[in-house]
Specification:
mainly alpha
């Protein structure tokens, strides 16, 4: 069930158009995942290549960190995947949009769709990158707060120190708390902003504003959606990144359906 009532949920889009935020049920994220799953397997030859690219990128990053003996830095990079992932899912949004219109999208058209709102998406991407760089910098500062200026230890040394020492537990608690706050802010800003910029050519500020309103008006449902995104991504990483082949396109398609369910546009 959705509800379009409530003038406080209306946002002007310019040129006589305005957007209203729907009130959705707590279980709505499961419906978004179901719709995303249908999109994924309706045309896997167009969707799965995006997951293969995500898998390859994660393997390359992990391999590089392994070579320089900095695998503990994988956790902040995991946060970057959650933050920047929507920018790389534009082709998946196009596949879902084309299916809504009754078309059978191809991989070629999905890739080409990324250029339709490239300028506005790039501007929003810069904002997300700044947030991400701030988080990475803050993560290393928190590490220095508890471990001093020593280099990141190898993973086989870092994990026992993290779990069984005072400074390690302090790093774990503080780092988790700070990361949770930054993640919540980032999620609120970007939950539906990227598909909205792609779909309506909306400016980044308006898209972020509508995204925050959507999260505020549907706090419980969006909290569940955030948990499902994190759980799915953790699964993708825990399977030596192989799960990302399915998880990334699934979340991309589902995010499109979240956007379509949460926002209505009116002239």
């Amino acid at each position: 069930m959705t509800d379009l009532s409530g003038k406080a949920s209306q946002t002007s889009m310019g040129a006589g158009e305005w957007a209203s935020i729907r009130k959705v049920g707590f279980d709505a994220p499961w419906r978004w995942l179901g719709a995303g799953w249908n999109d994924l397997w309706a045309n896997p030859s167009a969707s799965l290549p995006f997951g293969i690219i995500a898998f390859a990128g994660a393997v390359m990053i992990a391999g590089t960190l392994f070579e320089i003996r900095a695998l503990p830095a994988l956790l902040p990079l995991y946060g970057g995947f959650l933050l920047l992932g929507p920018l790389f899912a534009v082709g998946l949004y196009d596949i879902s949009r084309q299916r809504e219109k009754g078309f059978y999208p191809s991989l070629r058209t999905a890739i080409g769709a990324s250029y339709t709102a490239s300028g506005r998406l790039a501007l929003f991407g810069v904002v997300l990158l700044l947030i991400y760089f701030f988080w990475v910098r803050l993560a290393f500062l928190i590490f220095m707060l508890f471990f001093g200026t020593e280099n990141l230890p190898p993973l086989e040394i870092f994990i026992p120190r993290l779990l069984f020492t005072t400074e390690g537990l302090g790093l774990l608690v503080v780092g988790t708390a700070v990361g949770a706050i930054l993640s919540a802010v980032s999620f609120a800003l970007s939950a539906i902003a990227v598909p909205m910029i792609f779909d309506r050519q909306t400016d980044p500020i308006t898209a972020a504003s509508v995204s925050v309103q959507s999260v505020v008006r549907n706090t419980k449902a969006m909290a569940l959606w955030a948990v499902l995104i994190v759980a799915a991504t953790v699964t993708g990483f825990a399977t030596l990144f192989l799960g990302l082949i399915v998880v990334f396109p699934l979340l991309g398609h589902a995010s499109w359906h979240a956007y379509r369910d949460l926002v209505a546009f009116h002239e």
